[in-house]
Amino acid sequence: MNMIRVTKQAVATALAKASKSYAIAGPVKAGAGHEFRCLGQGQVPDLEYTHTRLSPKSLLFPQAEPMFHFKLPETTGEPGDTPPAFLEAESFKEAPLAVVGLRPWDARALDLLKLNFDSPDYTDPFFIKRYNAMVRVGLADIHPDPENFSLAAGSGPFDEASVDILLADAGDAFIGKVITGKGRDFAGAAGFEPGSPDDAKAFAALKAAAEKEADILPACDRINDADTLDLYHADFWEAAAFSCINCGACTFACPTCWCFDIQDEVNQGKGVRLRLWDSCMTDLYSAHASGHNPREKGFQRFRNRFMHKLKYFPDKYGAGIMCVGCGRCITQCPGGIDIREVMAAMNAAAATVQQEVSP
Amino acid sequence: MTTATKERAENALQEKIQEKIRGIAATLLENGTVDAVIGYSRGSLSHMTRAIMAKTREDAQKLVFNSHCRMNLAAYLTPELMEKACAGKDRAGKVAVVAKGCDSRNMVIQIQENRYARDQVHIIGVPCTGMLDKAALARGVEQEQANCATCIRRNPVIHDDLAGDPVPETDPDKDRFADVAKIEAMAPPEKAAFFDDLVSGCTRCYACRNACPLCYCPTCFVDEARPQWVGKTVDPTDVMTYHLVRAFHDAGRCTDCGACEAACPMDIPMRHFTRKTIRDTVTAFGCEAGTDPDKRPALDRFELKDPEGFIR
To answer: Which of A53, A54, A341 sits opposite B44 (nearest CB)?
Structure first.
């Protein structure tokens, strides 16, 4: 057992030590809530935070990412004078980044994102460099929010699968486990003390208590085996989507939504190609160049978002649903949409169809 | 009245309104006056409601009214909805809508702007005593929404049914625009810093725009993509361009319903922009948007006495 402990008073010193070898990111106060930020020298993450409104995905996948810069070449205008355009890749040196205070489900979301950004067909250089350079110092959630259903979504308040270290708040100190080699290196650099067998017991007790408190979501077990078109044509979608105003609040807050748009911004012959977060909730997202839009109606876009998360993605990757149960979309939706209810509706629709076909 | 007593009285009032809404909705649906009723229903979170389209007596029993009916249902009155409501019928759709004072003002404007005809909507008016601020509730504080505190029309301007006795309007003489004056008094650099900070958390999810009953352009200027009119980044210039242009587009039309702020997942008080346009419309033209069905919006008409001091 690789138990570690760091008293709350010693956190700042430990991170200062670690910052000699790592850049540090973590949750800090921003406006009325908390957000993940890369921290400056001496800045300490607020590990008393409950949740961040935006997920930490921006640390791997920023909302606006310059991919490369370009200059339009000067030409004499003579026929045949077409000098090549000038391209310059974004200089990209990622130092090892330790994210301190990452919730276990937010960490799992980063691994789900990787399925899209690092596939057999294509490896996204921006994402994967940051992904590989990241050390995840997780912070278990000893009191999950009522809207959090991470345990049922395949993660949980003490999920160890996607973190390098998992700490838990034990009052005057953080106690926890070193899980990977990356985690061991960070623990060494930060000078975390070894934990005791009592710490191991306390950690297990905190875990049991948090998991007991954690919500179990409406099951989505039947969605997997349901026929895609049966779900797609189920009759609940329009009513379920009625209050949705098709804004992008859910997609931007979501730790697993990864869709993006590409835009060139050009000014006086110089330009930059940007990759920007996009949202499938918007009309523009699915508009074709022809003018046709396959998801013209709001409810169609609503349906697509949930079908992608709960059906297409599991079917494609076999890695479970594209949702870690953080609950951000539930608390932030202006229309009061609750993904747990949509899951239940899909599961129920799947059950109805299955009953109909079985003799 | 103590705060607790006042709350109990308001809750009792709202429960009565809720019962009336259900009764009116059921009758309208059963006697065929309307194809559907747009109202609020309970959300999965205690401090949220969600819009529903009730089509049967059973649906009508799901309608609620409480201090969490922050969304403006006028924003749901799209041509698509009108079409859906009358699907299969050989006539234009007619829907009933639950409308608070501010919502009814937005409906006045939508009718003036030919969004739909007056006879296509049946307004179930609700005398309103204000909504609770969602962001404050998240901090455990029960406090009225800022826009409700300066409300000038708690009772619906137009209605076909009234789901409750009219409530007294707030004191019209009280200083409604102290918030605007405070910002106007700032020195330019201070003002710039204030507004930069105000929108710094914006992710451009457009919840404010989509919740707004005035924002119904078929293609919003930020969605003009051939070519792109406004950059899509979260660069401060792009973000501010969005907020300022939207505020100006709503000038003379905004009823201060507060749906934009209630919808914002980042709790950005973007009403600071629209409040200034409201104050200026009142000062320059003596107009309160949507309070008079017979008077077109201030920026939609010309009168010889219109001030022209701004022309230099």
So the answer is: A341
